[in-house]
Structure formats: structure tokens, C-alpha cells
Amino acid sequence: MSGFNIAELMPFYLDETDEHIAALNDALLRLENSPGDAQALAEAFRMFHSIKGSSVVMGFQPVNRLTHHLESLFDQLRSKKRILDRAVLDLTFRCLDELRDYHRDLRAQGESKVDLTGSLDRVVAYLQHTDPAAPAAPRAAARSMAAVEIEEAGRFSIVVVFEPNLPLVDMKARLVINRLATKARILSSTPAVEQLDELESLDRLVVRVAFDRAPTELVELADVEGAVRVFIETDASTLAGDLRPPVSSAPVSVSEDSPAAPIVFERSSAGSSEGAGAASMPASPSTKTRIAETIRVDSDRLDHLMNLAGELVITKARFTVIARGLDELFRGSHARVLQNDVHERIESVGRALEGLGDLKASSVDRLAVSFRKLCDQFQAIETELERVREAREQLKALSETVHGLGRVSDGLQKGVLDTRMVPIGPLFERFRRVIRDLSLASGKEVSLRISGEKTELDKRMIDELSDPLIHMVRNSVDHGLEPPDERELAGKPRMGTVSLLATHRGNSVVITVGDDGRGIDVGRVRNKIVAKGLVTAEEARGLTDRELVAYIWHPGLSTAETITEISGRGVGMDIVKSRIENLNGVVDVRSNQGHGTTFTIRLPLTLAIMSCLLVRVFDEIYAVPLDHIDEIVEIRPGQILRVQGRTALEIRKKIIALISLSDVFRWGGKDHPTASGRRLGGNGAAGQAAQATEKQTVVVVQDGETTIGILVDELIGMQEVVLKSIEKNFRSILGLSGASILGDGRVSLILDLDAVIEMAARASTRGAAKPAQAVVEYITQ
After folding, report:
1. What residues pair up with 629 in beta bridges, in sequence order?
2. Alpha-carbon torsion (16, 17, 22, 27), positive or negative
3. C-beta neighbour count of 696 within 10 angstroms
């Protein structure tokens, strides 16, 4: 494994550690309900042991030390030397939180600034108590872990002598230090680590460590390529048993704080390499590097992808053969020349036939020759027609191959998407711990009900959902659920219920967060929005309960009477709405006062590809997401109404707003008619045909609560479009969620129907959005 870079293992280490921490949370929650669960205790012990082992390999000593002592703690618990009580659980949960934060920093930044020393000291202090039932000592009473380890371990100075003028000697020195850090505690080094980059040359490195095992192991770790000599000096008092060092005559520098003469271990390293079992350590565990994200994919899905890729190669080969056959068929074609020649000969024969009466024998002979040539030409034409027939067969085969390619491409696309899809269950399971902490902090009895945990969603979307869901769950516990006594007086169970539900609906995933608490007090919301000046008192009185509840999404609005550690400052719900909308989703809230509140999130299955209906509006192509479309109708003039000055449409005795995209977009100076002033039939040939039949096409869309009709000039058809960000390539455009390039090279703008509906409802969109034509021109440049 010479030359192997252990930093490549970082993504796997982080994924594995995240899984272990999640499993530990579950095990601790089971132990809280059943302290005698031997299986959960054994599982917790095994998880801490696994994290400890992995952290040693990666060189993360703070993690290694903390998990080592947690492992010792749970070893005592499973052997019944200690009692599992609330103090142990609270201490362990706190350690897990810090471990999770430590590794979250590693994933995001390549290094972590989370200090695990405090948790380590608390665990060590707890382990040092002789009375198992005694509570953990405060941090001030605990000795620092550094002092404990130095007392338990020997102090050694590892001396490495490098070859003269060794290239990249500073990296070799870092390699030595990082290797030693995997097994020992680094106390200091000469020169210091931060000075290595400034050195032009380095002949000698001294690293002082604390180590609790045979010091000969340190020699193996420090023996790197380019080191001609490695030896160790130590205090004589730290050597135990019959361990005897070999004699060395090499001069050794002695540290000033060493109380005894040094005893030296030495191994000649001249000509040695790093060894077959050595692994090159990264320059530093805290080096800022981008950590690659990984997804664990079921092997059956990968096999399916491999089979589809094989079919795609076969189909490509068939395309090549068909194309070559078509080329050979038409390469020698002279159909045009033959056509002209035959035409001229037929005219010549016709002219000759007109004067048959005056023909001489020679003329008859010439006429016979012309007919024979004409027959030959017709035979050549038949040959060309046979070529055309064969070409048509090839085209038929080509059409079938295209169909096969489309089928394989669709399967490959679905297979690739499946590799990104992960069940939402692990995300939901995290909230058992959240509910446990919120229950303790609020003094309320809370149970969590989870359903639909096998529902799959794009991994990136699941990562982004964590914070919004936490805000909603916190609000459900803090604002929604009543205290146990109050629930009992209201005829409810003392324990409140928070539910997390996920389900598929068409091309979307719907997630609901609900509670059986007191619901939203619409009267208090009305008073708050008036007090904040959001509406006048008269306007507030005219708002329905549904409209009042929607104000909870407004920044800074909170109905909480007091501010708690959990919530109450009016910060969060507006961010929740923003985060969901950034995922091309929509969030809604419904409340029944006295019975509870339910938040509903609707998201597309993936952020990469969307199923859309392509439509033409004026001169542009737009993509309308299918999951928002209710139906497509053709209307006549008599169905268009005016309701309170707005254009509307009656469909099956239901009145809905009718808009044109001119009502929400500007077209870069072009004067396109709005819905109220638009001529029936639209522009172009398609528009004229529609005008002749006095019909107009309307796409009826909805966002869960509001339904509107959008006038379009032409329906192009359904298509899977690849979503590309407008914000990254141009700027954020209200009403557009992205853009896509069509097969013919044209740009299709993807409508954000939730925003379009909201913009149309406000009736204040003229000039608010970027001209659509400008976006198209920018993308096509």
C-alpha cells in the first residue's frame, strides 16, 4: 500500500461515523425506555468501539480519546458494574451531539473547531467516581484529560534524522507527526509544526509524545522514506517489566524537563522505505479540503444500471450499422440525372411519333434505338426505386431502433435517479431524539408517530429538509401541544402526539408535520398583525381564518406569549417557507383551534429532472410542471367572465381566475395583451386557426389551495426536462424556477407556478418580473 493516501478514506469515514452516531441515538432512546436492554447496551458499546477504531486510522485524536472512555463507560454498564441512570444518558447524549457537530464541520470545511475536551473531562470524572450512583462531578472538579493521560502514559522524545538535502522534507516531517498522532498524544515538536513551511532544510525532527504501550511501536511509525536514523529517548522511570533497550552510542539531546538520564531505543533506517503496511497520512487531519459526498446504493440498482448501459452500447452499434447501410445505398444514386434524361428521351420519342407518316427506314431505326434506350432507362429507374424501397426498410429499422434507444434512455435515466433516491425514514428517525430533548426542556409529555418512512426522495433534498422539519417540530411541541394538566382538563390524553408522515402523490412527495394540540389562535394572530402594522384593524376584521393563519410565514411574527429556549422570537417560519421554495416545493398550514395544526410540504421527487407540459405563449416555449396541472380545456367567448374587474372562467359551475403570462411578466418592451385585453386565438398560424374556431386553450393549474387558468397559444406536448438554474447563470427571476434546453436547441423557461399564482393573486405584477425575452436571449448567447 505504499503511496496510498488515507485522506481518500475521509468520505467513507464520515458516512460510517454518521451511521454509527444515528444508531447510538436509537440505542440510547431504547435504553431510556428499557434500561435493562442488554442488546441495546451491547450495540452502544460496539458503536463506540467502531468509531474509536476508525478515528485512530484517520488521526482524529479528540474523537478517539472521547469514544475510548465512552466505550469504557458502556463496558461497565453492560457488565453491571455501574447503573444506567438519567445522568449517564444525559452525559452520553451530550457527547453524541458534540461528536455529530465535530464531524459535520469535517464534512463541510475539512476541519473541525468543535472542542471535545469538556465532554471528555466529564466522562473521565464520571468514570473516576467510586459510587456508581453518584452524579457526575462538575467540570471544575475534574482533572483535564491531558493530565490524566500524561500520568498514565510514558513521555518519549522521538528523534528522526533525515537525509541531507532531502526534497520535500517538511512534508516528511508532517507525515511523521501525523503517524505518531494515530497511536500517541503529541505534546510538542522541534521544530514546531507551524514552522515547517518556513524551513528551507531540516536534518533533525524531535517529537515529544505521551504513550502507554511499548515504545518500539513508535519507531515503526516514525520510520519514513528519507529517514536515515530513528531513535527514542525516555525517562527511565516510565519503563516497565523486563523491557531493555539496545545500547546506542548516538548522541541524544535531553529535554530540560526530563528528570533522569535518557534511555535510547534505536533502529537503523538507512535505505529503508515506509514498509508494505504503511499508509501515507494526510498532511493534517484539519487540512481544508473538499470532502466528497457519497451515497450508498443497493447493488441491484447498480446491476440494473450496468445492464442498461450495455443495452445502450448495443443500440449505438445498431445505429452505426444502419447509418452505414443508408450511406452505401444512396452513395451511388443518380436518380436526378436519370430522371432528366428519361424526360428528354420521352419528349424526343413523342416528337418523332408525330411525323411517323413521313418517316424513312433510317428514322424508324433511330426510333427503335431510342425506345430500347428508353427501356434501359426505365430499368435503371426500377433499380433506383428498389434502392428507395430498401432505404425505406432501413428507415423503418432506424425508427424501431430510435424507439428502443428511447426506452433504454428512459430506463437509464430512471436508474440514475434511483441511485440518488434514499428513504426518508432515517431522517424521520432522528426526530425521536429531538422529541425526547424537547419533551424534557418543555416539561410536556410527547410521543412521536412516524408513517411512510420507506418513501424515497432525492438525497440532496433530504439533506436540505432537516432544518425546516426541526423548526416545524419545535413549533408543534412548544406552541401546539398543551401541558399535561391542561390537556387533561380539555379531555385529551396527558401525552400529546406529534406525527411525521410521508407519501407519494403523482410526481411529488408530500410530507406532513402535525400535532393534536391547541391549534393556532387566529384571534391572537389578528391582534399581532395589526400591532405590527401589517394590516389595518378594519382589514384584519375582513380576513378569513385561512388568510389569518397564512400570516405565520411573515418574518418576525410569533404568537407566543413568552420567549423560551425552544422558540418564540418569530424567527424561523419565514426561513422554513424560503427553504422549501428553494427546493421547488410548497408549504401549507392548516389549523383547527383546540384540535391541532398540520403543516404540509409538497416537493418534487428530484431537483434534476421534471415532467412538464411544453406550451407556446406568444413566441416563447414554457414548461409547466405536470404535478400542478389539473386539466386542459378549450373555451369559447361565452365562458369568459368579468368578476370584480378581473378576467375569470367558469368550469363546471366553478369560477377560477383566468390570466395570460402578460399579467405576470414583461416581454422586454414588447406589448403583448393581457388576459382581459387579449384577442381570442393568439398569434401565428396556430392562433389564427384557434381564432377561426373561436376557441382558446387554457391550462388549469393549482398550488393546493388556489386554482387558476393560464391562456396558451399552442400545446406542444409532454416531455421530461432537465432543470438548469437561472439564478446561477443569470439572476433569480420571480415566477421562473429554471430553464431547460430542448432537443432542437431552443430554450424553454420553467414556470414556478406557486409564484405565478401568488403574483396573479396580488394583481401587482406589472414590471415586477424580469422580462422573459431577456432571459432567453441571455441563455442563448
Report:
1. 701
2. positive
3. 26
Residues 487-493: contacts with CB under 8 Å, at least 24 apart: 490/594, 492/516
> According to the model, what pLDDT value does residue 689 have?
46
pLDDT digits (tens, 9 = 90+) for 239-287: 333 333 333 333 333 333 334 334 444 444 443 333 333 333 333 344 4
Question: How many CB atoms sit inside 10 A of residue 421's CB?
Answer: 20
**Chain segment 590-619, per-residue pLDDT in tens:** 888 889 999 999 888 776 677 889 999 888
Whether 41 and 57 have beta carbons less than 8 Å apart is answered as no
Residue 132 CB contacts under 8 Å (≥ 6 apart), including other chains: 81, 82, 83
- Sequence-distant (6+) residues with CB within 8 A of 746 are 621
* Integer Cα distance of 162 and 15 in angstroms: 38
User: Reduced to 3 states, what is the DSSP secondary structure of residue 556?
Assistant: coil
Burial of 656 (0-12, 13-18, 19+ CB in 10 A): buried
Cell of 725: 438554474
The label of the residue with cell 545500547 reads 247
Nearest to 472 by CA among 545, 577, 549: 577
pLDDT digits (tens, 9 = 90+) for 364-417: 677 777 777 777 777 777 777 777 778 778 878 887 887 788 788 778 877 877
- Report d(CA 309, CA 300) in Å as an integer: 14
Q: CA 30, 36, 39, 45: dihedral to nearest 10 degrees?
A: 90
User: How far apart (Å, rounded) are the C-alpha atoms in residues 310 and 544?
Assistant: 59
Q: Which residue stretches of 255-298 are H helix?
A: none
Ranges 65-79, 245-259, 616-630, 720-734: which has the least confidence: 245-259
* pLDDT value for 128: 81
